[in-house]
Amino acid sequence: MAKTSCEIILCFFFFILSFRVISVSAQQTCDNAAGSFKPNSTYDNNRRLLLSTFASNVTAQNGYFNGSFGLGTDGVYAMGMCAPGAEPDVCSNCIKNTAEGLLQICLNQTDGFSWSGEETICLVRYSNKSFSGLLGLEPSNDFFNVNEIRKEDQKEFDSVFDDLMIRTIQGASSSVRNNSNSLSLSGKYYAKDVAPEPVYGNISVVMQCTPDVSSKDCNLCLERSLDFYKKWYNGKRGTIILRPSCFFRWELYTFFDSRISGGTIAAIVVVVVVTIILIVVGLVICKRRKQKQEIELPTESVQFDLKTIEAATGNFSEHNKLGAGGFGEVYKGMLLNGTEIAVKRLSKTSGQGEIEFKNEVVVVAKLQHINLVRLLGFSLQGEEKLLVYEFVPNKSLDYFLLVYPNKRNQLDWTVRRNIIGGITRGILYLHQDSRLKIIHRDLKASNILLDADMNPKIADFGMARIFGVDQTVANTARVVGTFGYMSPEYVTHGQFSMKSDVYSFGVLILEIISGKKNSSFYQMDGLVNNLVTYVWKLWENKTMHELIDPFIKEDCKSDEVIRYVHIGLLCVQENPADRPTMSTIHQVLTTSSITLPVPQPPGFFFRNGPGSNPSSQGMVPGQSSSKSFTSSVDEATITQVNPPSNVSARGGFYNASIGQGPDRLYASGTCIQGSEPELCSACIDSAFIRVIKKCHNQTEALDWSSFNEEYPCMIRYSNRSFFGLLEMTPFFKNYNATDFQVNLTEFYQKWEALMLGVIADAISSPNPKFYGAGTGKIGIQTVYAFVLCSKDISPWNCSRCLRGNVDNYKLSCSGKPRGHSFSPSCYMRWDLYQFYGFIEYRASPTLPREKDGGKISTRNILGITVALAFFITVLLVLGYALSRRRKAYQEFATERRSMTTYGTAPPDDDDITTSGSLQFDFKAIEAATNNFQKSNKLGHGGFGEVFKAKCS
């Protein structure tokens, strides 16, 4: 924190000018949840008739029209409006295009809306229910600029941004018409503004609400949009959020015709004030950092000497090594008193290690529970960071249940039930009963240790987070944990809560009862499922008994076990609000009379999409990776999958599996969505033949290729299931050896902006294409870029994979004008010519040029310099005075407490105090102790004697 603050001061005057423009043109939102109608029905005809007249009606009503057509269930309600000040013909065209877009996109949805336009914004909304006067917050649609505000600039940027947003929301939600030239209601609830930002130029914002809602509802709608940006896109360089009742947009460029209020001097004053605040704050933090170089660790923990731990572990002997984790290794040791310990040695090369070390010590030292592993102490010397835990002899639940399946017979139903109960009590303690509210974030079988009596102990708190008493949800940009155990909202949005741990606990219950690993894959009904979705299928088919581990079937009550599975399914429901709390789980586990609710489908449950028709051979949806192993693969088996025809027949993406047990084969093929079937089939066929010829006995192979340099595709096979997995290794690259003959800084900046824009195009909502293409100018050259992902991974993972390729390029190929790189899950290519002729390459927005500011005279410069010096002097003097006052107040408070303790404090209404009120006259003390008589002596210590005294 301190280091970052110091860097803010040093880097403050370096401006960043690159960003990607986002547009509002024709963003239709169809409300699938509201209902649907049959095409060519009476409702459909009424909808078309009403919307077809909207352009003229809105224009005739000075930019706002609200009407309906039809009766009863066939009635259609609609609204249309333009931004105030729009020319009639511009407004008419905007409304017409927007209405036509809604009719084309929302084919059978009873509700839909669309905000459209760039310089002139308009709205068209329709529904089968009257919505006039009602606040509509959902459904919403959002877009963001992929570039981000630099972390060192974020604090200063937020200061200007927050003030602008508050001011604009207040202006927009005012009931007064915000455009003096507008006579219609469209001028109501509209505001636009610009604020100068020292690093990024200007922040421009436009907000508008529909005039039918109240001022209070308009304010709420815009505040919700601002909160949404803060929660999900904070730090991005532009956002558009569209709701039925309001429009919210801000950019780092002026996208409307507006002038900044105030002149150059006003802008400089803002810069100066904000700069001074940052300087003062930075200096204070830097000073504190110097005074506090050591890591703060709780005094409740014992600090071990490094030599003691080295002796206990045999100098970290391999013989004593118990295992390794994400941040280091674990060793068994024995102290001189005979106490067995487990020592977690954090890796010296781990950049994350120090964070996790502090976190684990701070968290675990405050926890004491029979079902949590106990921290005995730590050691922090030089680069060594060591955590000393109690030794738990029976290793982990993972060891018995999943790593060595033949050891599952040691876990009968009684033991497994006890383990589930112990884990429940441990998590409940973390969430509710401890002094802190703690979210573990990495609950999994390998982090459940078993003591000599097979009692569970939750371990590894490196990822844990402490929550406030009233805090329920938090967000992180750094998703950590183990896939398979992480909840859907955490994986996709970085949002975690107590319900995230509940999800992980549900996965653990299912693993404990089945003896199966969640990340493994299980075929059922022609589809491949992970454990959670497999159990859900069993639940739907009422065949839950098939899940029970054969090792416990004979010694358990089937109804009791199925009740535990039922609880597990409740824990892994997709919506966090539907999942029970740990206190509820503890109640239903200990009280069999409580009736359980019916579970909803779990997170990551893959529902069949249009056109999915699994064959009797088990053709299934999937993903990608590539390694080589020397083992035989039957070529006939690979041929049976028949990738060329299957990929082209299924819209450019196909996965399949065939065979059983160790002979099972998984394969997938990817083409560009919507491309010509002949091109796709030819490319896949070419890659298929090449793989068969080159990979004679490898169990895994991968080929990203181009057919005659005109068409990209991918084919892959393996003896393991890679479906639904993000795999970024191995990474391959090929590039032109010559360097781009332009300024490398310019190339680096513009090339990255181009690639990030293309990636954003590939994953843009609501229907990601998983491919993108774009072009941009770098110097005098035009660069073309293309990206493609395997369609079975999520848009989030597609972005991660492609960004990983971008980062790898920057490390090893920076400045190369052409090349391509790929990993199992994604492909990226760039060149100086249009290499795929059938794809439309979107022009990347040009980087904004700095505007020439008006020249400031020498007198103005001198005045600004004097003002700056004055402000700094005043602030430093005020800071010093406040510091002295605070110190004096602390001394007074200490004195006051002492006076109160000894009954010498003046009355509360007595304003007279003296700094020497604790200083007694020596003669008074002599009199009170009778000149230190022996009879008044109470005792003596190392520094003197103590006498009893009586004050008169």
TrEMBL record:
Catalytic activity: L-seryl-[protein] + ATP = O-phospho-L-seryl-[protein] + ADP + H(+); L-threonyl-[protein] + ATP = O-phospho-L-threonyl-[protein] + ADP + H(+)
Bilayer disposition of the protein: Single-pass membrane protein
Protein's UniProt keywords contain ATP-binding: yes
One of the record's GO cellular component terms: membrane
InterPro entries assigned to the protein according to its UniProt record, in alphabetical order: GNK2, GNK2_sf, Kinase-like_dom_sf, Prot_kinase_dom, Protein_kinase_ATP_BS, Ser-Thr/Tyr_kinase_cat_dom, Ser/Thr_kinase_AS
SMART domains according to UniProt: S_TKc
Signal peptide: 1-26
Gnk2-homologous domain mapped to chain residues: 25-131, 139-255, 611-722, 728-835
Binding sites annotated in the UniProt record for ATP: 344
Keywords: ATP-binding, Glycoprotein, Kinase, Membrane, Nucleotide-binding, Phosphoprotein, Receptor, Repeat, Serine/threonine-protein kinase, Signal, Transferase, Transmembrane, Transmembrane helix
Alphabetized GO MF terms: ATP binding; protein serine/threonine kinase activity
Record-annotated membrane-spanning stretches: 265-286, 861-882
Residue ranges constituting the Protein kinase domain according to the UniProt record: 316-589
Localization (cell): Membrane
Record GO biological process: response to stress
Domain of life: Eukaryota
Protein name: Uncharacterized protein
